[in-house]
Amino acid sequence: MRKKIVDLDKIKITCSCGGKTKKIQTTWKNIPVRAWKCVKCGEEILHPLDADKAMMIAKAIQNKEFSVKVRKVGKSFTISIPHKLAKFIKLREGEIANWTISSEKELIIHLSK
Ligand SMILES: [Zn+2]
């Protein structure tokens, strides 16, 4: 029997309504994922690999695995990035992190890749 490995990025997916789909970038619980969107009914079918990763990240957030204590180093403060999170965003040493402040309770980091 012949066995074939399917490249999910190349196969055409048809929605359960019969409509054609197009590849899109979307989010699930604010986590970026690849998906196929039906041009007929608008339903989004998440990429299974990205859906697995997103579920792992969502679970880690829920379990407070990404909650870290702010530490002081001299006059500055330091916040570590947990390994699982760094791996998910493919963080590399030497990248430049740019801060944006949205409120006193929310900081946003933009990475220069
Ligand atoms: Zn559809």
Task: Briefly say what this structure is.
This protein has helices spanning 48-62, 83-88, and strands at 21-28, 31-38, 44-46, 71-73, 76-78, 96-103, 106-112.
Give a structural overview.
The protein is of the alpha+beta class. The chain folds into two domains: 21-62, no CATH class; 71-112, no CATH class. It is built from two helices and seven strands. It has helices spanning 48-62, 83-88; strands at 21-28, 31-38, 44-46, 71-73, 76-78, 96-103, 106-112. The strands form three sheets. The chain has a three-stranded antiparallel sheet with strand order 1-2-3. The radius of gyration is 19 Å and the shape is elongated. Bound molecules: zinc ion (ZN). Zinc ion (ZN) is lined by residues 15, 17, 19, 38, 40-41, 43.
